[in-house]
Fold this sequence. Notes:
The protein has helices at residues 41-49, 95-100, 109-119, 135-147, 165-182, 193-199, 217-222, 227-232; strands at residues 2-12, 15-26, 30-34, 56-61, 64-67, 80-83, 153-157, 185-190, 202-207, 210-215, 237-244, 247-250, 253-256, 269-274, 279-294, 298-304, 310-316, 326-331, 337-340. By secondary structure, it is α+β, with helices and mostly antiparallel strands.
Amino acid sequence: MTLKFDNILYSYGGAAALTGVSLEAVAGEVTCLLGPSGCGKTTLLKLAAGLLPMQSGQILLNGNVLANTTQNPPPERRPIGLVFQEGALFPHLTVRENIAFGINHTAGQSDLISGLLDQVGLTGFADRYPHTLSGGQQQRVALVRALAPEPDVLLLDEPFASVDIVLRRALREETREVLKQRGAVAILVTHDPDEAMEVADKIAVMDKGQIIQFGAPKDLYDHPVSTQVGLLIGGGVVIEASNSDGMIQTRFGVWPLNCLKQDAPTTDRLNLLIRPDALDVDVAGDNLVTDVRSIGGVARAVVMSPAGDKLYLHVPATASIKPGDKINIAPKPRAISGFAMD
């Protein structure tokens, strides 16, 4: 089973929201649409759900047209489940009644509902009302309600945004487990890179109505196509550098060419994406350590070049460096992404 978006364009008035988006999401995988507010990810989800009319392009489900400019069935006629940010449960219905609302058959309904509630850790909650549930519990019920009709596609629009961080982490794990077990096409919208990395099998990074990179989380982390993607997936700092006589000239020192990943361009002027785990402390040098703080099993050091640029590096928690030290920085081999400067 595959959900395919084929050259989707959409505008609100004269403002373009999607500018030729093509994407395939396959059954058994969780696909995340990741990007800032206004990048078009929720618009794409609403088009798939039938909440917006198609303006251009087509959406295919398993090779058959689900929606285009002439064929645009309403949400209730699509084999799609939708989970909103706030859950959107009916307050006057019990948990059981909320879940049963979208089920078209009665045979085995009670067992189905009980089984799904068991699966998300809500055994015994069937007769409760939404107002008696916590935010996380309501989101689990919303997920079960979307899964109960056994849709071919499940769409989740920022489903964890309204719960606290501890519960959010638990819900991510539970949701991924449930989605993988069901084997439907699953698309999750999020603006949180950590959430995408933890939940997704594939990530589509979106910006200004386009997909700028699509792939597995590890591929996006290891081989971002731009500094924008690299900073979003994994963070770090971007500094300017030059490639001269087989060496990389930076304000933090002269580094060997093999510090760059193999897909780095060979241009004279580069932007380097440097993550804290790409660097080691070498011998004494000219770069000033301005801060050192523990972040669990490692310490994060803030290092300033003589020109005032800053980098962050991770060192063992037992490292002896301290604020005021002057050090040299040694990059690890093939650890730094390089991009041609505009």
